[in-house]
């Protein structure tokens, strides 16, 4: 029996990481749960986000490593087969929605397929059928922004890129965020001539800009043409090509990607009907992820939040609600330092206090910069561009780190416990790492 005789204790609108990561352990605690999904179970990340993207990146990373070892034990470069790579990606992701649905149904969760709309604080309508719950969690995620210019319907979004079976000879990418830069890398390494249109003079604005400049220079070496401070004005189909008309002239290619960001899915789900407050940045929540309607909570990309709209933050929020709903906590949500990485070649990754903040506050922080080319292990990998910057407070505790290298994601990941658990400089030596690894060499910089 559920609380107050509702059909469900908790009903999730959406089945992405903001829902299923918390729903499964909550169901295992005996709660009766329902998860409503209009599209593929598992949402963006497994089906058309992180997992799909990183599968396409695997040959790119290997190619970068093979290129680096030319004449150092390896003779002969390699080329990326676009069609095979997309097939490889499909083989990785195709089974995920079924597996995620099975992991929910196996613990008694009802997965309801259809489009849900809030009717009141305890009821969701799914294609004419009404479902009631003591609590509702809105986890509807986000959708691609579409530039408001004539001819934009001739451009494609990130999902189309991940499903693109025929390699374009030339591609125009509008945007300078994660998706624009990661997809430019994948396409350029496969031999597509990419033109990247940056709205301003900077890309990846949340990352340390000297590292971003190095990344852009490296992309240029791989044939990417970068045009800064450009405003796309329209797109036209001329003969077999697509022409992006801009304030700096025409850019012609066979395929155009609109990578100008993502917007939260707040429209047409009944938020106005029930009085849930939101704006273009997402649903407003308090420090318990509760919306302006007491019985309704929100997680993931649909939430207006200061931390990154990333899979691990969606998982953290979903898991927090599991603790809240099961009575394991009454405390507000308390995010740890949130790492982020751009999965390019080389990668840039960062966590904690930023380099800019540290340099602006020399009374609070010490900044240590290291060129990784002089690390013997990175030298063995022929990593010649790597740089790492570590940031310490005045007591010598690690509080932030930023790296550019082919292993930046793994290097930052290995430093996370030292930051989150505030390991003292003396205690750091109590850890024995595997040797020789990225982690063992990263530790020398901490
Ligand atoms: C191309 C790409 C690459 C990315 N790469 C990374 C990465 O490398 N690392 C990282 O951390 N993050 C990455 N992200 C971000 C990450 O995918 C999201 O932060 C994460 O998926 C958010 O999860 P969510 O549960 O909030 O939303 P989603 O996963 O989007 O799930 C929302 C679900 O709700 C469903 N839905 C919406 N409205 C309704 C309705 N009315 N009724 C029923 N169902 C509904 C949708 O169909 C969807 O399945 C990437 C995103 C993209 C697009
Ligand atoms: N590695 C990762 O963790 C990863 C990878 C991909 C996506 N994501 C997530 O997905 C989300 C979406 O990524 P994204 O790259 O689409 O968004 P983004 O917000 O990172 O970048 C959007 C880009 O579009 C540009 N832009 C905006 N309006 C424009 C205009 N009118 N004309 C030209 N350019 C314009 C911006 O300047 C910016 O460079 C992000 O929130 C990110 O958290 C994460």
At CATH level 3, the topology of the largest domain is FAD/NAD(P)-binding domain
Portion in beta strands:
25-35%
Shape: globular
* Termini Cα gap: 53 Å
What is the CATH top level name of the largest domain? Alpha Beta
Number of strands: 23
Number of domains: 3
In CATH, the homologous superfamily of the largest domain goes by the name FAD/NAD(P)-binding domain
| Mean pLDDT over all positions | 96
Oligomer state equals: single chain
Indicate the radius of gyration in whole angstroms.
23 Å
Q: Largest sheet at a glance?
A: 7 strands, mixed
Bound molecules: flavin-adenine dinucleotide, nicotinamide-adenine-dinucleotide
Protein name: Pyruvate 2-oxoglutarate dehydrogenase complex, dihydrolipoamide dehydrogenase (E3) component
Cofactor: FAD
Disulfide bonds: 45-50
Family: Belongs to the class-I pyridine nucleotide-disulfide oxidoreductase family.
Structural notes for this entry:
It holds the Pfam family Pyr_redox_2. Its cofactor is FAD. Keywords: FAD, Flavoprotein, NAD, Nucleotide-binding, Pyruvate. By secondary structure, the protein is of the alpha/beta class. The chain has three domains: 3-144 and 263-326, FAD/NAD(P)-binding domain (3-Layer(bba) Sandwich), CATH 3.50.50; 152-260, FAD/NAD(P)-binding domain (3-Layer(bba) Sandwich), CATH 3.50.50; 346-444, Enolase-like, domain 1 (2-Layer Sandwich). The chain is built from 14 helices and 23 strands. Strand 9, helix 8 (209-221) and strand 10 form a beta-alpha-beta unit. Helix 3 packs across helix 7. The protein is globular and about 70 Å long. The model has no long low-confidence stretch (mean pLDDT 96). Nicotinamide-adenine-dinucleotide binds at residues 147, 174-180, 182, 199, 232, 259-262, 308-310, 340-343.
């Amino acid at each position: 029996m559920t609380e107050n005789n509702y059909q469900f204790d908790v009903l999730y609108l959406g089945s992405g990481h903001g829902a299923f990561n918390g729903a499964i352990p909550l169901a295992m605690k005996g709660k009766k749960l329902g998860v409503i999904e209009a599209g593929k179970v598992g949402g963006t990340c497994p089906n058309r986000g992180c997992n799909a993207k990183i599968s396409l990146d695997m040959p790119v990373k290997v190619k970068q490593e093979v290129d680096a070892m030319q004449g150092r034990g390896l003779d002969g470069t390699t080329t990326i087969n676009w069609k095979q790579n997309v097939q490889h990606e499909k083989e990785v992701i195709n089974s995920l929605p079924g597996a995620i649905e099975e992991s929910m149904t196996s613990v008694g969760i009802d997965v309801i397929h259809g489009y849900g709309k809030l009717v009141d604080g305890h009821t969701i309508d799914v294609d004419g059928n009404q479902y009631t719950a003591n609590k509702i969690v809105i986890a509807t995620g986000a959708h691609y922004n579409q530039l408001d210019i004539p001819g934009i319907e001739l451009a494609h979004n990130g999902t189309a890129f991940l499903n693109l079976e025929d390699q374009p000879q030339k591609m125009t990418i509008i945007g300078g965020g994660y998706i624009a830069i990661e997809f430019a890398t994948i396409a350029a390494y496969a031999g597509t001539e990419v033109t990247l249109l940056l709205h301003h003079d900077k890309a990846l604005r949340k990352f340390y800009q000297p590292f971003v400049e190095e990344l852009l220079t490296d992309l240029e070496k791989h044939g990417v043409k970068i045009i800064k401070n450009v405003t796309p004005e329209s797109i036209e189909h001329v003969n077999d090509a697509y022409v992006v008309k801009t304030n700096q002239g025409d850019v012609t290619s066979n395929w155009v990607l609109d990578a100008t960001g993502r917007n939260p899915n707040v429209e047409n789900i009944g938020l106005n009907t029930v009085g849930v407050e939101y704006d273009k940045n997402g649903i407003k929540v308090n420090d318990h992820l509760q919306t302006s309607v007491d019985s309704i909570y929100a997680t993931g990309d649909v939430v207006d939040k200061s931390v990154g709209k990333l899979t691990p933050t969606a998982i953290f929020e979903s898991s927090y609600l599991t603790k809240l709903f099961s009575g394991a906590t009454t405390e507000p949500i308390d995010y740890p330092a949130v790492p982020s990485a751009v999965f390019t070649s080389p990668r840039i990754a960062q966590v904690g206090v930023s380099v800019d903040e540290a340099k602006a506050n020399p009374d609070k922080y010490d900044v240590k910069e290291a060129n990784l080319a002089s690390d013997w292990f990175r030298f063995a990998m022929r990593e010649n561009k790597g740089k790492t910057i570590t940031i310490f407070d005045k007591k010598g505790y690690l509080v932030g780190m930023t790296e550019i290298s082919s292993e930046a994601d793994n290097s930052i990941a290995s430093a996370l416990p030292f930051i989150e658990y505030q390991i003292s400089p003396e205690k750091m030596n109590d850890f024995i790492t595997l040797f020789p690894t990225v982690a063992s060499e990263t530790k020398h910089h901490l």
